[in-house]
Amino acid sequence: MSKPVAREPLRRNARSNRARILVTARQELGRNPDVTLEEIAKAAGVVRRTLFGHFPGRAALLDALAEEAAEALQGVVASQPEAVEDPERALARFMLSIWPVGDRYRLLLTLARRDLGMERVSEILAPARAWIAAILERGQRRAVFHRQLPPAAFSACLEALNVSLLESVNTGAWEDDGARTAVINLVAAGVPEERAVRVVGDVTPDVRDGTTAR
Q1: Is residue 166 within 8 Å of 101, Cβ to Cβ?
Q2: Terminal-residue alpha carbon distance, the chain
Q3: How large is the angle between the packed helices 37-44 and 58-79, nearest 10 degrees?
Q4: Cα distance between residue 8 and residue 30, in whole Å
Q5: Is 191 helix (H, G, I), strand (E, B) or coil?
Q6: Burial class (CB in 10 A: 0-12, 13-18, 19+), 207
Q7: CB-based contacts of 57: which residues, under 8 Å, 6+ apart?
Q8: CA–CA separation, 168 vs 29, rounded Å?
Q9: pLDDT: which is higher, 10 or 129
Q10: How far apart are alpha carbons 118 and 120 in whole angstroms?
Q11: Phi-psi category of 86—alpha, beta or left, where left has phi over 0 and alpha has psi -120 to 50?
């Protein structure tokens, strides 16, 4: 009877170590993409053997971070209101909601092509890409977004814009809590700047409070 009781603290300790390693890896890789696993283990306060027990190599650690990012993005998509909200508000809401996830995992942008591969990155981003394309298509039908590009290409352009902004955060050239980025996306979609600022200002309190569309 004593063995299950003894094992449970060990399992809890293992889960705690794994979570701490992942948090530390995000931080250390964000500062230095070439940081070694040994350096990550030291920063996490675990021995090398413990880290390798959870992640046999760099690829396994990065894949775990990629899985975290994918789950976070899926959570943002799932939290969005049904497709009835005004497209301008919907795009602003989504950008405000997704910015913290992009900011938290922006290190993956640096590592994507080198370590994860574009197929894995595309898999991670697929739900967000589909959601944005749907918002853009709805906005084009209502003539609130420009129609020069089909929704998929339009979505790819906005994605490139946001990737560029996140990379600017990496270099220290840009700092934002998501609000200015949301305005920039609306302007890029064809919304006049003054109106874009108003829309983002109106939606921001709901997003910060976790409120869905009224």
Answers
A1: no
A2: 54
A3: 60
A4: 33
A5: coil
A6: buried
A7: 37
A8: 16
A9: 129
A10: 5
A11: beta
How does pLDDT run across 178-208, given as a tens digit for each residue?
Answer: 999 999 999 999 999 999 999 999 999 988 8
pLDDT bracket for residue 10 (50, 70, 90): very low
| Reported confidence tier of residue 213, pLDDT bands at 50, 70, 90 | very low
Integer Cα distance of 38 and 212 in angstroms: 43
- CA-to-CA dists, residue 75 to 13, 22, 94, 110, angstroms: 26, 19, 12, 23
- Choose among 142, 135, 122: nearest CA to 93: 135
Secondary structure of 61-91 in HEC code, one letter for each residue: HHHHHHHHHHHHHHHHHHHCCCCCCCHHHHH
In 3D, which of 3, 5, 38 has the Cα closest to residue 21? 38
Query: What's the one-letter identity of residue 92?
Result: A
Distance between CA atoms of 126 and 74, rounded to whole angstroms? Answer: 9
Cβ atoms of residues 181 and 206 within 8 Å: no
Per-residue confidence band for 2, with pLDDT thresholds at 50, 70 and 90: very low
Q: For residue 96, which of 214, 23, 199, 169 has the smallest C-alpha distance? A: 199
- Residue 92 and residue 187: Cα distance in Å, rounded? 11
Q: Give residue-wise pLDDT tens across range 112-147.
A: 667 777 788 788 888 888 999 999 999 999 999 999
CA atoms of 5 and 27, how far apart (whole Å): 34
